[in-house]
Write a structure and sequence with these properties.
97 residues
Amino acid sequence: MCPASRFKARRGIRNYLRKRGIPHTIPERSDQQANRRRRGSNGGRPPAFDKERPKQRNVVDRCFNALKQYRAIATRYDKTRESYEATLIIASLLMWI
């Protein structure tokens, strides 16, 4: 995939998220900020960014990574939904204790 097509894909994803009202959780890259400033008024306004959202996302990511340490959860040994959910609850309780 060439770099130009990746840029178009990212732009399309951002536009889709913006239309659905989903806020940013990843800050804008410094080179993108510089390009926007260089273009002046044609560069558009910067995307809104809340510094607390990545912190909340980090907590959720760490929780999922901790749950993946349990082999039965990571590999999904359980065949039925109920037994998998029970394993997930037990692992969550062990983490909480």
